[in-house]
Amino acid sequence: MTSPHSETPLRRSAVGSYRKNDEAERQEARRRTPLVQQDTRKSSALESIEENETIRSCVDLYNCNKLSKDNAWDTSLIDTLANLMDRHHKQLNNFKVTKVIVPFAKRAKVIDMKNLKKSCHSLIQKQLLNPVDETSVPSHSVPKEESYAKGTASFQEVYRSLPDVFSDKMKDSLSPSVALYAVLHLANDMKLRLIPQENLEDFQIRQVLDDEV
To answer: CB of 192 within 8 A of CB of 205?
Structure first.
């Protein structure tokens, strides 16, 4: 009967008793690797030369009006074009699209439009109380028989003053586009005329006067 303590390769005493020296194999593998890469580059270059020669000969035949569906197979033109298309598709598949991060709002912003319109109207009317010289107003087309109040208001000044009359919650939701949306509503409701500047950095707001009877 075999003793349960007989020496086997799996016992701890056997570990390290035989060690394969594969340094020579690793050196040989490193030596062969550049040769394989070089052979691959050479074969690719030879294939490109052969493909170029095939296409050039086919073009010559076509220019001499000697290329037909019968000799197209003999010139291996179809196989050459198929190889070129296959290689082109493989190159396209290797392309990686650059990851582009588009900044956008992560959460929906809620704002009280009724309160915003009321605040914009109050700030506009406050500015309109200060008369200005007509020469300081940007030139603009005037509809027939339309007159304006003496003062003007600036959208930039209105937007700059809005945070002072808003709560902290509404300040976070305020943006120039939202404020412009409110002013456009007011222009339609309150008969306001919007006059842009030449540099488009701001626009003036004028109050259209009602026609006297």
So the answer is: yes
pLDDT in tens, 105-138: 666 777 888 999 999 999 999 998 887 776 667 6
DSSP 200: S
Rounded Cα distance between 150 and 207, Å, is 8
d(CA 111, CA 89): 51
**Burial status of residue 157 (CB atoms within 10 A of its CB: 0-12, 13-18, 19 or more):** middle
Residue written as token pair 């056997």? 14
* CATH 1.10.10 for the 113-207 domain, yes or no: yes
Domain ranges of the chain: 23-93, 113-207
According to DSSP H, which parts of 166-197 are helical?
168-173, 176-190
Looking at residue 111, the DSSP 8-state letter turns out to be -
Q: pTM higher than 0.90 for the full model? A: no
CA distance 190 to 124: 11
For 151-182, write each residue's pLDDT tens digit. Answer: 888 999 999 999 988 887 788 888 888 999 99
